[in-house]
Amino acid sequence: MDPSGGCPHAANARLLARGAVAPVVLPGEMEGMAVLGHDALREFLAHPDVAKDARHFTALREGRIPRGWPLMTFATVRGMTTADGEDHRRLRSLVSRAFTARRVEELRPRIEQLTISLLDDLDHAAASGGGVADLRRHFALPLPMGVISELLGVEDRYRDRLHHLSNQVVATDIGPQQAVAANRELVAVLGEIAAAKAERPGDDLTSALIAARDEEGDRLGEQELIGTLVLMIIAGHETTLNLITNAVRALCAHRDQLELVRKGEAGWGDVVEETLRWDAPVSYFPFRYPVRDLTVDGIVIPKGTPVLAGYSAAGRDPAVHGADADRFDVTRPRRTDAVRHLSLGYGAHFCLGAPLARLEAGVALERLFTRFPGLELAVPENELSRHSSFVGNSVRSLPVRPRP
């Protein structure tokens, strides 16, 4: 895996041509595997002999993972993404009520209000920037960060720092000292937020999690509390940030598809789903571990191997999505089994925030292209700088001309 990231699709196509499962070399010359094919990944994600708990990670258990390994947080953070069975159900139940379809729909007026305000900010940034503004910085980032921060009760003064630290945590080209420092600071900042909420509880999810921690029986340990906040902050804004950014890039490059939406021949929800499939916001997500030697699509994945879920590859798997899998098509029919893509996961660990991400992206895109129907990229697509990570899949900035 290339620690510096880059566009994954050409490499994904080469790997898929060889098979649905591939051996990979992770940072630090660590051997791993990646599941790339749609059907193979779907099977793997829901397999009962596949675990998330890092106690099943053979190299980590044997002490062969150095301190400061850039992917360490993905393996060791205490929370839903590294829990199995009853522990996973317990942790998930503590936050799931905040993300039901009904509760998310109740957020729509606030999301629309925040979107309108951010479009004003984007317009002002362009006016002072010679007609060009960074859509990622002024719109795609503050929308999901604002929503998740309000849900968690995180004050404005923390948000830029939390985004910066989140970026470092998901980077795969970061050095050991930087990785350790970023993780330590992220835990410290979230610990400060949690301490303030413990002293002055509010009507927010962090306060509710602290109340659960303090209940008799200790439903949520201190490390689990901080781990859950880490997960909520990173997953709660990074994924949607990439989704909105990638959707805008796709529509600017495929004006015919934008025109189909304007004519009513497709909806904004179709744009969101096709973007998730065609340019998944998370390319390769760490980690899962077989608890025994496991055969997937004819390939043996040894027990305890760290396995990446290849969402970006599965989204363009021609065996499932057809010979035109690499074509962006908002009218692409859904599969008969109702699984259009796996970019938000599958099985017990399906993304808890999926309804919120879909709502935020749909509202953002509709309002953006209604306000600025002539919006276009200010630089060619091939000149956009990519994320320095094979986990997150997007660009660092998105200069646009928001023309009315």
UniProtKB/TrEMBL annotation:
InterPro entries for the chain: Cyt_P450, Cyt_P450_B, Cyt_P450_sf
Domain of life: Bacteria
Gene3D superfamilies in alphabetical order: Cytochrome P450
Pfam families for this protein: p450 (PF00067)
SUPFAM superfamilies (UniProt xref): Cytochrome P450 (SSF48264)
CDD domains, A to Z: CYP107-like
Family: Belongs to the cytochrome P450 family.
Protein name according to UniProt: Cytochrome P450
Organism: Streptomyces yaanensis
